[in-house]
Write a structure and sequence with these properties.
By secondary structure, the chain is α+β, with helices and mostly antiparallel strands. It contains 16 helices and 18 strands. It has 2 domains: about 220 residues, Uridine Diphospho-n-acetylenolpyruvylglucosamine Reductase, domain 3 (2-Layer Sandwich); about 190 residues, 3-Layer(aba) Sandwich (Vanillyl-alcohol Oxidase, Chain A, domain 3).
């Protein structure tokens, strides 16, 4: 069965578990787009809910034999349109592949791609271990999606992003073969670093069916500091002063728009008049944490903080983290969103944040900004009025101007959400002709038919194919 190549949907159905294929249009609706709500989502020929690597192989071989576009999908929490369905294609859902196994001695988690980030954390915690990458959506985003976009999170300023924890993976490549990359070794430089190549590839080079993740000893209970500022400049200057000499375990930023959106939704007692707020944590041993937070508080006051408050109470500290994590849902209540995650070198953070404020004013559109400030990765949210065509036009212009601004400051069009389909038009400007051409050569080498997630990251030649 392993080498059987299905050439019709009926043949594929016979190779898969009962109920794995969905062709009903109404049932497929939930699989057509991710959280980015791409309006150009197509209607697939079928949705396949895989349960094993062998299922994935069968689907990939079918797509290769019929030249059908194949769009892999995890939890659907993506923010760049990376799992947007294509007319006549196949959506390959990995949501049922949820197994997580912990090997405590080697501090490794072996996870299938559909497992939620939170499920990996919980499994690790049972053994006194910790999986650090923590996107704000950690409770409902999948590990496969995290690896596909190289997700970061609130702790990445100190602990790094997903790629820093991926030791190995199992991948089904475009011709249906299964390859094992890396493995349970901390050091391994034999051959090219193909594991790193697939991290962040957004399903365009292969379908990841298992990952081996490095774990750390459980994190110490952090001490939390919250500081508010009357100006954006004071807040971003404070970030630079902190990161020049210290490495807190969290250093997050929220602007006035995002603060007020969170207050409206959660009814928290945050300062509505503040132009900027920093949420800082230290997870050093207790005495060192208090000393580090005290030093950070001193820096905040030097740069004009209007208020500083710190706590080592776990529940109180977590309440502030929840406020930061809920920023997207809170702003989403103001209207439809165009979501960005542009990043810049840390020393250009102030220019980026102030530049976004200028774009917001000039285009007369609301742009909320919050950020993993400690590493320069910002999340501007451009708010759309679904009932105002003129405002929508201005919002789309502002969206592009934010990315142009980031590029001009030596930054990137995406730090952790991925290029997907929504940011693909700006990729050439960011990479430049030579690097873009290298990207295309790698894509062509690994997916010569162009069937894997066509239109995501790269321009597509296969998405229009609809042979039977």
């Amino acid at each position: 069965m392993e080498h059987t190549i299905a050439r019709t949907l009926d043949e594929l159905t016979r190779l898969l578990p009962e109920g794995a294929i969905i062709t009903d249009v109404d049932r497929m609706e939930a699989y057509r787009r991710d959280r980015a709500e791409d309006p150009n989502a197509g209607v697939p020929l079928a949705v396949v809910r895989a349960t094993s690597t062998q299922d994935v192989q069968a689907v990939v071989r079918y797509a290769a034999a019929t030249s059908r576009p194949l769009v892999p999908r995890g939890a659907g929490s993506g923010l760049s349109g990376g799992s947007t369905a294509i007319d006549g294609g196949i959506v390959l859902s990995l949501e049922q592949m949820r197994e997580v196994t912990i090997t405590p001695v080697t501090r490794i988690a072996i996870a299938q791609p559909g497992a939620f980030n939170a499920e990996v954390k919980a499994a690790a915690a049972e053994h006194g271990l910790w999986y650090p990458p923590d996107p704000s959506s950690f409770e409902f985003c999948s590990i496969g999606g995290n690896v596909a976009t190289n997700a970061g999170g609130l702790c990445c300023v100190k602990y790094g992003v997903t790629t820093d924890y991926v030791l190995g993976m199992t991948v089904v490549i475009a011709d249906g073969r299964t390859v094992t990359l890396g493995g349970p070794r901390i050091k391994d430089v034999a051959g090219l670093s193909l594991t790193k190549l697939f991290v962040g590839s957004e399903g365009t080079l292969g379908i990841i069916t298992e990952v081996q993740l490095r774990l750390l000893p459980v994190q110490r209970q952090p001490t939390t500091l919250v500081a508010t500022f009357a100006t954006l400049k004071n807040a971003t200057d404070t970030v630079l002063a902190i990161t020049r000499t210290m490495r807190p375990s969290m250093l997050e930023f929220m602007d006035r728009t995002s603060i007020n959106a969170v207050v409206d939704m959660l009814r928290m007692g945050l300062d509505r008049e503040a132009e900027g707020m920093l949420i800082v944590q230290s997870d050093e041993p207790a005495e060192h944490a208090r000393a580090e937070i005290a030093s950070i508080e001193e820096i905040c006051n030097q740069f004009g903080a209007t208020e500083c408050y710190f706590t080592d109470d776990p529940e109180e500290g977590e309440a502030f983290i929840v406020a930061r994590r809920e920023a997207i849902p809170a702003v989403e209540k103001k209207g439809a969103l165009l979501l960005e995650d542009v990043g810049v070198p840390i020393n250009r953070l102030g220019e980026l944040v102030s530049g976004i404020a200028h774009i917001s004013e000039q285009r007369e559109v609301t742009i909320a900004v919050f950020a993993h400030a400690g590493d320069g990765n910002t999340h501007p949210l451009v708010v759309l009025d679904p009932n105002d065509t003129n405002q929508q036009s201005r919002a789309h212009v502002a969206y592009g101007e934010v990315m142009d601004l980031a590029i001009s400051l030596g930054g990137t069009i995406t730090g952790e959400h991925g290029v997907g389909r929504l940011k693909q038009p700006w990729l050439a400007d960011y990479l430049g002709d030579d690097v873009l051409e290298l990207n295309h050569r790698i894509k062509q080498a690994l997916d010569p038919q162009g069937i894997l997630n066509p239109g995501s990251i790269f321009t597509t030649t296969a998405s229009s194919r609809n042979s039977s």
